[in-house]
Batch of 2 targets.
Target 1
Amino acid sequence: MTTFIIALLAVPLAGFLVCLAVPAKNERLISEVVQLTTFMQLVSSLAFVFLWIMSDNAVVTFNSAALFKSGHYEYSLNFLFDKITSVFLVTGTILTFLVTTYSRRYLHREQGYKRYFYTLLLFYVGYNTSILSGNFETLFIGWEILGITSFLLISFYRDRYLPVKNAVKVFSIYRLADVGVLLAVWASHHLWSSYMSFEKLSDYNLIDKQLHAHHQVGIVISILIILAASAKSAQLPFSSWLPRAMEGPTPSTAIFYGALSVHAGVYLLLRTYPFWQHQWEIRVMVGVIGILTSIVTTGIARVQSSVKSQIAYASISQIGLIFMEVSAGFQSLALLHFAGNAFLRATQLLVSPSAVSQLIALHERPKTRAIPGLERLVSDRVRTGLYVLCLKEWGLDFFMYRFLWNPFKRLGEKLRFLTARRTALFFAVLYLLGIFFCLNTALVPPPLMAWLPVAFSFTGLMMTVRSFTERKNVWRSWVLIIMNHLWVVLAISFNDTVPMVHIVLYLSGVIVGGLVGYWCLYRLRKSERYIGLGQFHGHIQRHGGIGITFLLASLGLAGFPITPTFVGEDLVFSHIHPNQILLALLVSLGCILNGIALIRIYARVFLGPNMRSQYELTYRSS
């Protein structure tokens, strides 16, 4: 059985690597490689599920060797296969095979034909890693891959303004979900004093004993799980990002935001259900979020003028009902509902271009229908008010900007006094002073010692906020992100004796990614007159190699699973004590803004309409 699990992970990864090696002009070979990969995955998945059913549905686990081990810390990959995984696996393999078959002709002669298919295979690698994960660490790898592939596929038409802008917006919400999982991992490590697998979460006696002794910690972990699940599945108040994600090609929106990726939050709730099923406050919270989302998005879907937006909000509404089913304990019904909703929305999105074209060709207008019975119970004024609210999407975009991003932007505006020279001087003096105190802790009074990590992490967060709001100097924004990582290392160094290997592991990816990214900007500046952050420049159209290298450098600097920094981030949180909630919050906020600022730099410099374009731009979507 473990051989099948390895194959389910290896087949799409091998297809992705082969696809990278195929010349971009050879469309036929690219599509054949991708279709063969998905077909092999479909056959192996169905065979594995059949054998698993014949073996009495026993839970299959597979523990790989530790990726990194130092003292009490261990980062290992853990895989689990049970009823939940089987439903998500079969649904995912069938839909991926159908979508790749559909895409072969749909994207014929598109400039990014190869880029689309290898990104789709990379997404499939992340999806399989997520649903087969046996612990939070493995799940986090899959979630990071889902986030970056979402950004790449939404911005597939990278010479246009709206796809790139909406891709950055969606990635920012995904970043919230990623950090919610990261904080849940940190809190669970301190709750269990070890690394928990999802299999152990099914042990009622173990869970009950720990939650009785640490009830508040259990509530915090559950809330973080709900935050991650809600952001990933577009539940309130994060629902507005899903229609914006429809800027990508129709096949990718079908498999991402109609079928698989949008249900990742449902998977997280189902997988962690044994942990929070006896916390009635959490079950009520999940149910309330689900029912409110279903009611609000049903009304929004009915007033949309775009067929993709209608399908998006209808899908969100159904996912809200699935949240309610999970909170009520109806896991089998939730799994059936997931599969039905995934197949239905994928089919609707795939046929939507043909349906719209047919209606236009026949010159048909939708017939006016009588007002349904429930709507007759309210007055015309109330009905009109609800219509306007739904037309404005209940101000969900305004809510996110007003209470989430605008405070950071206002704070960044107040930090404009940090010029390049002042920043370098301030960093050098204060950082050297911090290193001196770290090496001579006996000179620091105990009350001050407790607050120094918070002060240094706050300083690093201010560097990130300044980078997040930078509008002119791209080099300054890049260097400020690197500085934030250095401040985080200094902050955790005051907690306990941090082994040098941990610091080297964390900073290796940061330094390499930082130097490579700076070199890319330098090379670009030699041939382009201006590369600021005030607008989208679209330089990837003329500098494709530099753009890809800069993207890889940005991912390495953000802790994506291609550099040791990914494991280093988990190491950093392992050195934060359970009573240092403020320190964990500051470091996690830095992680959120770091990732968004890096993707923002890449999008502003390399994506969007080229600066030399003379065509008018579309600045708003439906």
Target 2
Amino acid sequence: MPRRSARLVAPAVAALLPAAAAAQAPGTPRDSATRRIEPVVVTGTRAAATVGGAGAVVVRPDSLPIPTQPAPLLEQVLRQTPFVLVRQNSRGEVELSVRGSDSRQASLLLDGLPLTLGWDHRTDASLIPATGVRRVTLVRGLSSLLTGPNALGGVIAVELNAADADGARRPDLTLGTGIDQFSARVLTAAGGAPVALGSGTLTFRGGATYRQRDGFALSRDGGAGEGTTGGVGDPGDVRDAALRTNTDLRQTDGFAAVRWDGASGAYLGGTVTAYDARRGVAPELHVRAPRFWRYPESSRRLGVLSAGTGDLATPFGRGRVDASVGAYQGDLEIESFTNRTYSTVASRELGDERTASGRVTAAHSLPGDGQLRVGGTLADVRYDETLDAQLPASVASRYRQRLSSLGAELEFPLLSRVLVSGGVVRDAAETPETGGKASLGELSRWGWRVGTTAAVVDQLRLHASASRRARFPALRELYSGALNRFDPNPTLRPESLLGFEAGATVVGDAAARAGLTLQTVAFHHRLDDAVVRVTLPNRLFRRVNRDQIRSTGVELLAGWTPASLRGVSFTGDLLAQKVRLYDETLPAGQPNERRPEHQPQLRGSFDVGVPLGLGVRGSALARYTGRQFCQHPDLGRQVALGAQTVGDAALSRAWSLAPAGRGARLLRALRATLAMDNVTDATVYDQCGLPQPGRTVRFGLELR
């Protein structure tokens, strides 16, 4: 089945980010980029673009190189996204990292509202459902200061209830199911329908998914390989020796959305999403006393309201205002067991999180084809933590954090092919409730950025940017002991990132006709007061501020769909970086430079898609991760994790169910996919002692 094309216009990509506008609609005031620089049009499943002088990649979950099971989790989508490092940690959470950053420095947005402002300032991608998600945009640098506080190392924008980028207004319905050789299964249904209402359109969308697995496949050696350092491998689950210990999952999720789009560009929308999950946490293989944890409850409910005025005439020109408010509640229960049989509970932790946030952005035209954008974000995070919850005397500790951000940006064209922008922002945080521990009080930091995009010739666009911004420590970093795994450190200082990038993107009709996508970006980041973890003599971890982490690297993204080879496509990406931590607090004579944890210097992937005849399409993907390091709690030092490669392959075929000339109808096509993940059954680690699943064969069906 030929891949779907992604026609991308740079201002439309920017519209996915709340810095430009929260959930754009037709009628958005055209900014200088629209007037002065021709649209970027590229073709591919992982398309390159530029946003505000920063490199970006746009991915459609239904058009990945290797088709996932229907309604994938966000983790599965991002593992096939260039330049984002996806890693499962020892708590069973999936962390995201961009350009040598920590996972708390990347901002994850759902329809313009940040999900990463909470107890931990990050979101577990292994639980975020992609049911109904239309598009995911990864901006690697800081494209704008208006994305809210604590956005340093990139922005991942997930589009669920935004206006259709192509203006389509048609009913749709998707039904899907999938299974693997261990009887893991998924069932999903999602759809929507537009209804004419006055001069506008009212669109309803909704969906639900059920997932179940008994565990992940063990790789061929059970996980006892390089990087385990003292581990003996995984003997398998007590119920099934072919499965990784304690990796089962039961999850149900759903969403409902309604959106009204007026002819003038005004809109009003509401979205409700929720999930409920029960799962195990794989124990580490390289330590004497790993976590034996289970999550008997992990749930979240999120509601978002958004509205925009569309393009309006004012006494001073043209402008618009967009606003969104949201609230979510999450419940978490962790059970810690005495051994790998998971029969005796040693301790229990309960977490109750409530976060309310809101943002307002406004844009207005200026003389000389310029534009002024302002934006503000407020977030209030409350968390009740109960440790040793099985004891009658256990009492919840209450924590609270307020975060705010207020910024302004200017954008002006120079001549006819150059666009420059710049702005300032003030971020602030305070911790009025700290569970009886020391408070950081009120903190604030100023940030700035400048950027430029230049269409040197019709086929080549150059971009560059520089920025500085701070990140405030999360409540969990400051105060949580994680069931006696961490020693809290309420004296952590904010981090501050100084970033530079410059790049080039091949664009234009000539590149589109040649089926070519090409982008190269060079970057340098300097993170001051970096928060890292160290091992104490009692084997507990502690987060501390180190002097500096420096990241320097190059990103390459290329795609080619030659017209002479009908249906054949090639895509590749490569990240080469040098990441170093410099600690000036060490005694004289000791080396002050070392490798940070979980930061490989080389990562890349290559995929190829080929039509095989009889309507069958074959695809293969290889992913390479270079040598990296991790902190070993038993040894009190870093150990190396060797370079590793994993390959996936798939066959897919589509059948049309709508005879020609019968008009529009739902369920017009059936697609079947047979895939094999980790073809060679290699032992591939996310981090020391935590291997990815072994060889897995899966089959999926989708009706659209």
